[in-house]
């Protein structure tokens, strides 16, 4: 990475502090910042102006891909039910403290997110929030099924118009053509925007540079916004099999005055649980800041970003975000230098770029793909990785990896059960373009070697 170019993009920006599931210290759920409710500002949220509508959008957006859960039915039941009461409390608290953008989809939370989000939001005046949902017809691209999905979103959310509507997760032309062109759905959505039932029409990008360029130049639609993955790691680094970085995407949107919505500001949580060397760098720079806050600071530093999505299922996460978005504070030059060094360290300790979205699931052979990747990444990031038999800590790290693997992932759902069927990568289901089968084989070989090398 060119450090000079990296530092240049930060300039004046914002300090945003999120307490993610873990902060810099492995095992901590949040950072050790102040946590009494009285100091959470209610009137200092940072807003960005939508260039089309002039509306003020909270820079902190509430992502509803993951929502609080509770056991369904009797004690010990399967955790597949939304905890509506907890979600209502979180939404109430967010709105009371200035958050007004909520993002959901018909497929989030096993199809339960829109309904639960709608219940929580309908208790507030319609002008108090902006709702974004999506045409998530990945598995049902036919026109009839797509239209059914569209109209059902109105019912589930309890609204008569969508503030922001997205063509969901596109990145390959053939798949885009099947889902939106051959069935006439794109033309239908454009007409719905003209009729006012869609106020802003955009799309979320997961794919290759040539497809992004097509959507920008040849799609024949004036896009009101685009959702992109943006964080300090992928700013100049192409991830997975993608051949494009976030800086290119962002710059192309700036040229056209199209606002960017940011997803994955924490890179699926990886920027909240960095490897041990990167953690030490950030702790030295600011002992009280969570690792996650640095990533939010970077995303918030880009002036063409309209909102930054964060999934917040714990109140303390929401509180910590509110403190640091209320208002946004600029990064210092020294902070910029620290982030540049962190990126270099992350490139040296490469983990699997899984964000835990579960689009690869279910596996027909029962493998818990995200959990396998999560355990591998966690051991790597925490510096507890048995890659050198000559190391004095090898035996301890080996034992921790193997025991932790069995505890994190049931044996029948581990990597050795992969038969290379390819269903998990069919139709490019993984937004990060991970070569899942190759990674499974790599992890399986690694685990088998650990079992042999006692």
Give structural notes:
The two termini are 39 Å apart. Helices cover 39% and strands 11% of the residues. The strands form three sheets. Strands 3-6-7-8-9-10-11-12 form an eight-stranded parallel beta barrel, surrounded by six helices. It has a two-stranded antiparallel sheet with strand order 1-2. The protein is globular and about 70 Å long. Mean pLDDT is 86; it is low at 1-35. Helix 13 (369-381) packs antiparallel against helix 14 (394-408). It is α/β, with parallel strands linked by helices. The chain has two domains: 3-348, NADP-dependent oxidoreductase domain (TIM Barrel), CATH 3.20.20; 369-452, no CATH class.
What structural keywords apply?
single chain; 454 residues; TIM Barrel; eight-stranded parallel barrel; two-stranded antiparallel ribbon; 15 helices; 12 strands; 39% helix
CATH class label of the largest domain:
Alpha Beta
Helix content: 25-40%
Q: How do the strands of the widest beta sheet line up side by side?
A: 3-6-7-8-9-10-11-12
Count the strands? Answer: 12
Approximately what portion of the residues adopt beta-strand conformation? 5-15%
CATH topology of the largest domain: TIM Barrel
Name the shape in a single word.
globular
Query: Distance N terminus to C terminus?
Result: 39 Å
Described by strand count, sense and barrel closure, the largest sheet is: 8 strands, parallel, barrel
**Number of domains as seen in the coordinates:** 2
* Overall residue-averaged pLDDT value: 86
Number of helices: 15
Radius of gyration equals: 22 Å
The CATH architecture designation of the largest domain is Alpha-Beta Barrel
What is the subunit organization of this protein?
Answer: single chain
CATH superfamily of the largest domain: NADP-dependent oxidoreductase domain
């Amino acid at each position: 990475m060119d450090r000079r170019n990296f530092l240049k993009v930060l300039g004046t920006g914002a300090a945003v502090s999120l307490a993610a599931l873990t902060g810099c210290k492995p095992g901590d759920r949040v950072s050790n910042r102040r946590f009494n409710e009285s100091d959470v500002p209610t009137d200092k949220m940072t807003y960005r102006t939508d260039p089309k509508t002039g509306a003020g959008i909270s820079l902190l957006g509430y992502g509803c891909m993951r929502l609080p859960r509770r056991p369904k039915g009797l004690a010990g039941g399967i955790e597949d039910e939304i905890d509506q009461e907890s979600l209502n409390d979180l939404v109430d608290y967010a709105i009371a403290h200035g958050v007004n953008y909520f993002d959901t989809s018909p497929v989030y939370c096993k199809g339960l997110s829109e309904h639960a989000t709608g219940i929580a939001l309908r208790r507030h005046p319609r002008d108090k929030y902006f709702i974004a949902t999506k045409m998530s017809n990945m598995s049902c691209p036919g026109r009839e099924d797509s239209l059914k999905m569209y109209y059902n979103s109105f019912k589930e959310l309890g609204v008569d118009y969508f503030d922001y509507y997205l063509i969901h997760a596109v990145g390959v032309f053939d798949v885009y053509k099947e889902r939106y062109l051959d069935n006439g759905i794109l033309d239908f959505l454009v007409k719905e925007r003209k009729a006012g039932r869609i106020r802003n029409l955009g799309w979320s990008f997961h794919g290759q540079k040539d497809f992004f360029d097509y959507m920008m130049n040849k799609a024949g639609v004036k896009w009101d916004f685009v959702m992109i993955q943006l964080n300090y790691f992928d700013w100049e680094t192409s991830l997975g099999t993608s051949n494009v970085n976030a800086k290119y995407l962002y710059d192309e949107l700036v040229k056209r005055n199209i606002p960017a919505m940011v997803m994955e500001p924490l890179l699926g949580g990886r920027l909240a649980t960095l490897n041990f060397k990167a953690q030490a760098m950030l702790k030295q720079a600011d002992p009280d800041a969570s690792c996650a806050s640095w990533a939010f600071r970077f995303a918030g530093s880009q002036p063409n970003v309209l909102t930054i999505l964060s999934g917040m299922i714990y109140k303390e996460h929401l509180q910590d975000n509110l403190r640091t978005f209320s208002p946004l504070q600029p990064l210092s030059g020294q902070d910029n230098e620290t982030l540049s060094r962190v990126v270099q360290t992350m490139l040296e300790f490469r983990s699997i770029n899984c964000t835990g979205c579960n689009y690869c699931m279910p596996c027909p052979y029962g493998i818990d793909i995200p959990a396998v990747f999560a355990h591998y990444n966690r051991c790597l990031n925490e510096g507890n990785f048995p890659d050198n038999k000559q190391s004095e800590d090898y035996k301890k790290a080996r034992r921790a990896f193997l025991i932790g693997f069995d505890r994190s992932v049931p044996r029948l759902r581990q990597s050795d059960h992969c038969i290379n069927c390819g269903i998990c990568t069919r139709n490019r289901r993984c937004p990060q373009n991970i070569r899942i089968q190759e990674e499974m084989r790599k992890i399986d070989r690694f685990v088998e070697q650990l079992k042999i090398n006692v």
